Known about the structure:
Mean pLDDT: 96
Strand order of the largest sheet: 1-2-3
Number of domains: 2
CATH class of the largest domain: Alpha Beta
Strand content: 15-25%
Helix content: 25-40%
Low-confidence stretches: none
CATH architecture of the largest domain: 2-Layer Sandwich
Amino acid sequence: MNADELRAKQAPLKQLYRDKPEAALIPAHAEGTLDLDDVAIKVRSWHGDVTAGLHKAGGGSGELACSADMLLEAMVACAGVTLRAVATAMGVTIRAGKVSADGIWDARGTLAIDRAAPVGLTEVTLRFDIDCDADAAKLERMIQTTERYCVILQTLKNPPKLSVAIGAG
Length: 169
């Protein structure tokens, strides 16, 4: 897809969202079914179910998906798609590229060993390795724009209001 094709696809959407801002509020949903025989959950995804379980550091076998890895995978996916859209719009040709994310979490927190230890990822680094025809300044603008418009990255930088509800099963 080139810049003109991308603009043509997005133009009617942008106009709709300008005319009817409520149309731009897009619901997102995730759902999983608890595994009654294991400490695990089967999460429905776009391309099949993914079973997530305890990380080896928390007593798991290491054979099931780790939720922290899945979060980083979502960030890599969003940043990669956003980068491709930004590069396309800027007319930058990407010859090769890789997006990776690395995080750190403290198992003492999630295992309730030390109440002072945090629960959750405390450090995340998103890395772009890009071979493209942009000079250093344009590449920097491209990465900054990607950071600005990546939904998952911005969600983590500016956490949403969260609530927890109990359903009737």
